[in-house]
Amino acid sequence: MDEPKKILLIDDEINLQQLVKVVLTSKGYSVTTANNGQDGLEKLEAANPDLIILDMNMPVMGGVEFYQRICDAWSQPKYPILILTARANMEEFFKGMDVDGFMAKPFEIDDLLAEVQRILAKRSGALKAAKPRDENQPPSICVAETDAQTCNKIGAALLSAGYTVHLVHSGTEAIEHIFRIIPDIAVISFALNDISGEAVVTKLKKMPKTQDVKFILYTEDTPEKAIVAQSMIKKEGIEFARFVKYQNVEDILLAVNEVLKPNR
User: Fold this and answer.
1) Any residues with CB less than 8 A from the CB of 226 and at least 6 apart, and which?
2) How far apart are CA 220 and CA 148, in angstroms?
3) Which end of the chain is more exposed for a tag (fewer CB within 10 A), N or C?
4) Model-level pTM?
5) Does residue 126 register a pLDDT over 60?
């Protein structure tokens, strides 16, 4: 019989902490609890967790400092991490942390269980392939663009082409929205105002829930911006469906059609 997966649950909301512990234990997990980051560090070695569920806002030591303390020399966490955070703190952790998933408080306990199972399955190599899209439904596209006029133009062109379209205006919104709806394609501007487009793609590609989303990353079609964008993409080793040098909405529409061609 396989040993139960071990989870270190770090949260200062004791009622929520104990509820999550009871539910996880009932599903066969071995759960160690900690009331803050310092408590979590002291229990970390003995717990030897397969997954850390980490709250962001806690006394004594918060989630960000705990995360920094368990990162290696390359600033990567040594354990899989599922973040619990209020929506107001999303931008802070999206900018500075590479994690396997997140839950925005308040959340449904069934959603938390599903995310725990997904992360552990990916880490063990047992993650199931994503379900194929329902061919009777139009493909879903999420567009992330800071400039409202450009965003609306791209959105209108995609709607006219028969796609279901979701528009967001920042990297933080993009990560939260894409994680929630799981679109067929995410069309991301390289020059978002809070988190760069390449960082958005990198973070979502690392999360099991969104790793199969197809990404189109675009930048204005000027030599300077294209060179900067492509050099950063090469440095990060990002895998995505298309990189587009954008002049007009037809460039985006063509890229979307090409990416979805096998499914249409």
Assistant:
1) 219, 220, 245
2) 15
3) N
4) 0.77
5) no
